[in-house]
């Protein structure tokens, strides 16, 4: 999995994130967390389209490289921060996995998945992606 450096800015109920290494990919929200989540989704969607079209994805620079680039670096004076944005791309091929869980936890997972109209697998994938995106 690749991580791109995002530049977070905003205040109050208006926040945004731009990714210098992936022009045109940005996200926004009423909180910093919503803006980051929206950017993760946008990056995933644009990356999936580019991959499907056979286009090469932009190279992800390190934090040090972005900070050294005056055009890309966050403006501390403006209150901007650097955040890590994961690129979560599907490979398009499901793989079976055998995992062990406590019986009560599995029952809770199944009940919550059913409540949301999801399969167990879809629920676990969603929960894992959410946890990865927030790490």
Description of the molecule:
The protein is of the alpha+beta class and 135 residues long. The protein folds into 2 domains: 1-92, 2-Layer Sandwich (Double Stranded RNA Binding Domain); 94-135, Arc Repressor Mutant. The protein is built from 4 helices and 4 strands, in the order βββααβαα. The chain has helices spanning 32-52, 63-68, 103-115, 120-133; strands at 2-11, 14-18, 26-29, 81-87. It has a 4-stranded antiparallel β-sheet. A hairpin with a 7-residue loop joins β2 and β3 (26-29). α3 (103-115) packs across α4 (120-133). The protein starts with a strand and ends with a helix. The model has no long low-confidence stretch (mean pLDDT 92).
Summarize the structure.
With 135 residues, the protein is an alpha+beta fold. The chain has helices at 32-52, 63-68, 103-115, 120-133; strands at 2-11, 14-18, 26-29, 81-87.
Total domains:
2
Radius of gyration: 18 Å
Number of helices: 4
Mean pLDDT over the full residue set:
92
- General shape: globular
Strand and helix map with partners:
Elements: E1 2-11, E2 14-18, E3 26-29, H1 32-52, H2 63-68, E4 81-87, H3 103-115, H4 120-133
Antiparallel strand pairs: 1-2, 1-4, 2-3
Helix pairs in contact: 3-4
Features:
135 residues, alpha+beta, Double Stranded RNA Binding Domain, Arc Repressor Mutant, 2 domains, 4 helices, globular
């Amino acid at each position: 999995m690749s991580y791109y450096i995002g530049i977070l800015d905003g205040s109050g109920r208006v926040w945004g994130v731009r990714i210098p290494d992936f022009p045109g990919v940005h996200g926004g929200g009423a909180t910093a967390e919503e803006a980051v989540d929206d950017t993760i989704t946008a990056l995933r969607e644009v990356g999936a389209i580019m991959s499907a079209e056979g286009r090469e994805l932009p190279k992800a620079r390190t934090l040090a490289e972005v900070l050294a680039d005056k055009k890309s670096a966050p403006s501390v004076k403006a209150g901007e921060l650097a955040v890590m944005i994961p690129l979560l791309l599907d490979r398009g091929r499901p793989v079976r996995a055998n995992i062990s869980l406590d019986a009560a936890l599995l029952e809770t997972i199944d009940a919550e998945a059913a409540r949301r109209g999801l399969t167990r697998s879809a629920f676990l994938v969603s929960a894992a992606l959410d946890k990865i995106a927030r790490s």
